[in-house]
Amino acid sequence: MPLCEPAKHLPEQGTTETGFFKSSAHLGKLHDLTLSDVSGYSYPYNILLAHRDIKAKLNRQPYDRELLITQTGKG
């Protein structure tokens, strides 16, 4: 399991989780991935675990891919 050391300032939880998991679902459909259920983990650890899982599953496919989390605006 990855270690999680939260920064002094984290992005707002509701907006961040909504955006991340919406994007994850879209990515899962696009690449036919079964996403792990991380709902039992608290923020931000749930996002860290989901990111790690998706990245591993993407790299099992024919081409290595990089998965980054970015923020593009406020809304």
Protein model, in words:
The structure is a single chain. With 75 residues, the chain is an all-alpha fold. It contains two helices and no strands. It has a domain at 38-66. The longest helix is centred in the first third of the chain and has 19 residues, at 13-31. The chain is globular. It starts with 12 loop residues before the first helix and ends in a 17-residue tail after the last helix. The model has no long low-confidence stretch (mean pLDDT 85).
Summarize the model shown.
With 75 residues, this protein is an all-alpha fold.
Report the span from N to C terminus. Answer: 32 Å
Structural class: mainly alpha
The oligomeric state is single chain
Helix content: 40-55%
What is the mean pLDDT?
A: 85
What does the main sheet amount to?
A: none
The string of secondary-structure elements, in order, is HH
What is the tally of helical segments? 2
Q: Name the shape in a single word.
A: globular
**What does the radius of gyration come to?**
13 Å
Query: Runs with pLDDT <50, length 5+?
Result: none
Percentage of β-strand residues: under 5%
Strand tally is 0
Can you lay out the helices and strands and say which pair or pack?
Layout: H1 13-31, H2 45-58
What labels describe this entry?
75 residues, 44% helix, mainly alpha, globular, 0% strand
